[in-house]
Fold each of these.
Amino acid sequence: MTEFNTIEIEYDGPVGVLRLNKPENLNAMSLTMAEECLAALDVLASRARALIITGAGRAFCSGANLAGGMGQEGSESDFGLSLETHINPMMTRLRDLDIPWITAVRGAAAGVGCSVALAGDMIVASETAYFLQAFSRIGLVPDGGSTHLLARSIGRVRAMEMMLLGERLPAATALEWGLVNRVVPDDMLEAEAMALAQRLANGPASLGRTRRMVWGAIDMPWAEALASERSEQLHAGRSADAAEGIAAFLEKRPAKFQGA
């Protein structure tokens, strides 16, 4: 198995877990961590049928590790370069995964950590979780796709509030705003995320197609969305899982999907 220094990966049956693992600095995202996440996603997507991303210790991710190379390339500071070379490829790989994935958020999800947390297909937060667009506090602008994610999730006005004021958004308010799916007691976070991930992992292979269709539909005109559905339905309908699902429906029994 590939060895990592800033993250851990493990499996629970068909579910893969990617854990940011630098709790001493609240899992701040360094260039190394971004590189390792990108490499781990390829490993996990090839073996798991669903994925959980979470953080070790008391935080999900406190944002960019400004002491870990972010923005320090070249003779002049260029915080955009680390986005181009590390963060944006990681976020794009997350968007384009072939398997559904969940974020399990405890404590701080700030800066780029907020972006990763909110990019999940489903988001489970503990009662101690909070989401923070901290960029205005240090004279920078939102990144990691957060302008796209937030404006489309909670609308322009609330996205502006988070980004311009730079205030913590607690888990309860995030649930009220429709930014997360579930809020659970802190000691139930991993169990809740795993239960959901196991349901996804035991579902049909078409769940991967569904998640990609929804991501595409965010920016597609109506006609393109319909065309996408038609194309994906063709492929899904020819799968072994579709044959099993239809047979199970007709025979009035639970389907046993194999992810193929």
Note: Residues 206-250 form one domain.
Amino acid sequence: MGEQYSQIDFAERRRIQDMHDAKMPVTAIAAALSRHRSTIHRELRRNFYHDPFRDRWGKEYKGYFCTSAQKYARDRRARRRLKLALKPALRDHVIAKLHEGWSPQQIAGRLKVDAPHGETVSHETIYRFIYGSEGKALNLYALLAVARRRRRKRMGRKPRSSPIPAERSIANRPAEVETRQSFGHWECDLVIFSPQFGKSNITSLQERQSRYHILIANEDRRSAEVISRIAAALDEFPRHACQTITFDRGTEFLSYKKLSMDSYFCNPHSPWQKGGVENANGRLRRYLPLGIPVVERNGLALSALTKRLNDTPRRCLDYRTPAEVFAANLADSKIGR
């Protein structure tokens, strides 16, 4: 339990052949390879070789052979990669959504919502298409949130720190906030830009349950100004939609007492404790890189970006949009009253 599943490789298939030829039961083979017996049953069934041809001595060629099993498995993976190449309409739809800023998971998930009995494709197939020969020719990797020529894990940025009263520690935050089952709990961070544009920055706010996003332009990092703009943005919502807010330990948030909601702060060097907004900021960078001019991240441009983020379906929301979930929560609360 909890271990990541990996595909059977050629070395394991060689051992399976040896043990199968030795008439070992499937349970024993599975134990020897630290695999579930169903995995071994499926491997033997799917990759069993049978050629009706008989040689001149009357021998029939059938059984489990590691070389043929490896070829069968490789061919199946190749056919999955070819799905988009063989279906032009589906391929064009995927490419169009990538140009709109959707991730492969969002594209695949929304296809299941919009056409549950129609043509669908998995996000892994989309990734393989992107990094395949056709996708590379079209530079599709550049349309991903993290535009890398090769797939790899993304590293986090360094957290900031500042002295915060112990009673405001995240350890004292209500436990219900962590589970995301309760509505009205926010996370906050600043998005910083190149020094050549001065001290201007953007406040990034995200409601934990709905992933609803708010972006606020700031002229500098003075705490009083940053907090006052956060208060103005959240005051538009009813009290039940603004119960708590979680910051990192940056000095720009030290005026938190001006907010009419409970404020909590992450532990030092622990930005992952407000991982929702940190992850959102990673996606923001595709639209708001360090070198983007101030004029392109203010006013209508920022409003349009906020709407785009809130109207994009999310896998964690069963491919509903943050705007839909946020509005539903507001409506449910009004009915409850």
Note: The beta strands are 49-54, 60-63, 185-192, 201-207, 213-218, 244-247, 262-265.
